[in-house]
């Protein structure tokens, strides 16, 4: 799996300021709302409180962030933070889509990485998040309208700036033609104004046959939500342009499957523990007999059995 990408300098600097403030005696404003825990867990929560309290967030939202960093479960974090169980899922989704809250969460998680306390449960939670993330919410391939789709008479359609440039270009051409005593060219609006680049193709367009034109689309990574953020692994500049990098979902699923023992060969394990060769042969013969009987019944239902 791709290594974890740490957040940028603003988050790290904020984390250092928060930790420094805590060392001077800053009192967490959410500690009284948190349940008692074992000593290691209590230290982890206290550390999270210190970091989160350095962010300009409402107290209830700070508590949500602290609760979320326990198990990365947004709905349960919202419930534990005091939101209604009926609206917890919606509240969590709204919170996790906000940049300020994401930065607070990243600050806590990055601090745990740096402190070496990114425990096994947290790793498994990250694997689950990666495996369940939606790649289509991060990057897409879209079919959009061509220049002729929605123009008048399916002729070339301009944007306002393009039409202005075209008129200026025609003015220059006519100025040169006047010097050569040539007749002036008339302006042609073609398909008119109104081209919108992300509009759907026109099904009856004679130029693209309703297929439109293909183009890649990348979501603004500053606004990634939890449905796509776990997949995001940065941007790479290549000779062909920018490339969105993603964590490997198949790799995450493979690790989860191995962790929970889903690759175990149950039949082989049963054979090793329970059956002799004679018992296996007997079971096989019985299975074959049942299969043949079932096939005979199916043939009878279909009228395929010939008497005699």
What would you note in describing this structure?
It contains eleven helices and four strands; from the N terminus they run αααααααβαβββααα. The protein is mainly α and 308 residues long. The termini are far apart. A hairpin with a 2-residue loop joins strand 3 (232-238) and strand 4. It is flat. The strands form two sheets. Strands 1-2 form a two-stranded antiparallel sheet. Strands 3-4 form a two-stranded antiparallel ribbon.
What are its keywords?
about 300 residues; mainly alpha; two-stranded antiparallel sheet; 11 helices; 4 strands; flat
Side-by-side strand order of the widest sheet: 1-2
Our Rg estimate from Cα atoms comes to: 32 Å
Query: Structural class, please?
Result: mainly alpha
Q: Write down the secondary-structure element order.
A: HHHHHHHEHEEEHHH
Tally of helical runs: 11
Please give a quick description of this structure:
With 308 residues, this protein is mainly alpha-helical.
Present the secondary structure layout.
Elements: H1 9-23, H2 39-52, H3 59-71, H4 74-80, H5 88-96, H6 99-115, H7 120-132, E1 139-144, H8 160-179, E2 213-218, E3 232-238, E4 241-246, H9 249-259, H10 266-274, H11 277-301
Antiparallel strand pairs: 1-2, 3-4
Helix pairs in contact: 1-2, 1-6, 2-3, 2-6, 3-4, 3-6, 4-5, 7-9
